[in-house]
User: Fold this.
Amino acid sequence: MSTKNIHRIISGNPTKVGSIDVQELLPNNGQFFDPFLVFHHGIAKADPAIPIRLQGVGPHPHRGFSAISFIYKGGVHHQDSRGNNHVVYAGGTQWIHAGMGIIHSERVPADIFEYGGVQELLQVWVNTPAAHKMDQPYYYPATKDATPTIQTPEGLTEILIPAGELDGVKGIIPTFTPVNTWMIQMKKGGKYTYNIPPIHQSLVYVLSGALLFNSQTTIAAQTMALLEQNGTTFTIEALEDTNAFVGSGEPLNEPIAAHGPFVMNTQTEILQSFKDYQMGKMGVLLEKTI
Assistant:
């Protein structure tokens, strides 16, 4: 087996999404990282002076990709135009195959103050192949307890596997193309070696703490290492207590037309997406309390 190398390390640009403070890592300088389109690290502190139902991100549409929330602190209250009304807490995942169109909201849960009052998550968009962009949408929630997990014998590393596979442990969320998503919590000194197909585009993101990559390069908090499409293995070691994420996926190598909440293959399809949304073809979301 040969070693994967770092192509480059990037840092995010600050922005605001609803009431969430976000570091936007992807797109980077206008470039996607096929099949990864968007990668946001969001942190929101709930405000007791504002109604909970108004905090977070209000109703908005998606078409043509998977919108995924990997939750590290607090929780997310998801509602959508398909009738789903559901909360997932830290360690869980909310995976939406947007397909032909869905409207959803991502609010702070009503009991957020019982969980420290802070919501921290990664919002990741994974592209859908053209053959499935107009499929019926599906929502897949996964709690931490329901997510397949690897624990190292010494107890220093925990890896949650919502989708994909790692060392024979398979995730529970189906994907259209090969995609791995691994949520990682490591204590100082924890170490793990990952195996990824060389064809995959792969990335390592550190939410907090710091990692040593292949005993050579430090990946600091809120920075992302984009890896080369070479080799099959890499090792990360926690230089301090660390929360991290590793993602990999087989590139689609298809044309990308993206505008706002829609990702299709042509500009004509984008225009049709806006028209369909305005005509109500993606449904209607009237938010309810849970």
Summary: The first helix runs from residue 267 to 278.
